[in-house]
Amino acid sequence: MRYYLIAGEASGDLHAAHLMHALRQQDAAAEFRFIGGNLMAEQGGKLVRHYQSLAYMGFVPVVTHLPTILRGMRECRKDVVTWNPDVLILVDYPGFNLSIAQYVRKHAPGIKIFYYISPKIWAWKERRIRQIRSAVDRVYSILPFEVDYFRNRHQYDIDYVGNPTVDEIRQYQEAHEAKTDDFIEENGLDSRPLIALLAGSRKQEIRDNLRRMIEAVAPLTDKYQIVVAGAPGITKEFYAEYTGETPVRVLHGQTYAILQHSTAALVTSGTATLETAIFRVPQVVCYYLSMYWFYRILRRLFMKIPFISLVNLIASREVVTELVGDDMSASRARSELESILPGGERRETMLRDYDEVARRLGEPGAPQRAARLMIARLKSV
């Protein structure tokens, strides 16, 4: 069968590449054409356009590059319809992908449309359910709570296939034995236990959070060494503006290794909170916003969720403390961190709660399950 995939950012490229591999395992005749990245290209097929030519975030960058984005969208629409695949598989990236889905549904109704990694309408822009309902044949979710949300709130049935982050961490752990002494020696660290700081993947997140994180852990550096997980594309020079003369190390390209060997962590919201939980590292979620008053207005008007971290959303209750906006002070973060360090009153409870999160996520194999369900649905029509 012929598969056309669209992924618009680095994480989508990773997840789509794994899905392509699983599809080829179950469909030896699979043909791929896609908008994506280097990881997808390694799976074979035709890379029509690299996602980096379309991946602009923030109001000003989007407006500045709007002609490029609109031209890319027109080219993508035409290419999908002209190639006429058996199925169009959309991977996250909802603003772009839902527009493509609506166009393809109108101009090439014979093409099936699947969504892998659903738009997070439970958090933002719930009105997108109308686009999903009208243009998407099936949604394959990677978050277990989305099933009840879609079914009960919108009477739209979806499939939960598991979470690919579970697969990625399992693969990492199988390939890297947890030898802390080797990690310490390779990175010039000492024998003190590690506290990890995951301050986000974007410059604004790092600006807002890292200095406060460092201030929070400063009194603990006599017993613990502090390691920042450097984000892709963020230079050491940028981090140096915030680490300064403090005894804080920044390690790039080693997020999983840092978590594998850490005692506790301060983490901004996002997939990093889930990764930290799967590695069974007690954490405090820290998300300072310089314009928190604006966030509070937006949340009251538009956001539908009680938590910002995936860990708490999956558990349907507070497993990890979330310090958001004005609650994210250095003193509050330090107090919460001390409660989850060895001997702290919340550490063992959080580790037990992580077991429940893992149970809800399920076993590895998300791409394989998604591929199996997709192929079965295509063969049934």
Molecular structure report:
This protein is 49% helix and 17% strand. With 381 residues, the chain is α/β, with parallel strands linked by helices. The strands form two sheets. A seven-stranded parallel beta sheet has the order 3-2-1-4-5-6-7, with helices on both faces. A six-stranded parallel beta sheet has the order 10-9-8-11-12-13, with helices on both faces. The longest helix has 18 residues, at 66-83. It is elongated.
Question: In terms of topology, how is this protein built?
Answer:
Blueprint: E1 2-7, H1 10-26, E2 31-36, H2 38-41, E3 46-50, H3 59-64, H4 66-83, E4 87-91, H5 94-107, E5 112-116, H6 129-135, E6 138-141, H7 145-154, E7 159-160, H8 164-175, H9 180-186, E8 194-198, H10 203-217, E9 225-230, H11 236-243, E10 248-252, H12 255-260, E11 262-267, H13 271-278, E12 283-287, H14 292-301, H15 310-315, E13 322-324, H16 330-338, H17 347-361, H18 366-379
Parallel strand pairs: 1-2, 1-4, 2-3, 4-5, 5-6, 6-7, 8-9, 8-11, 9-10, 11-12, 12-13
Helix pairs in contact: 1-18, 4-5, 5-6, 10-11, 10-16
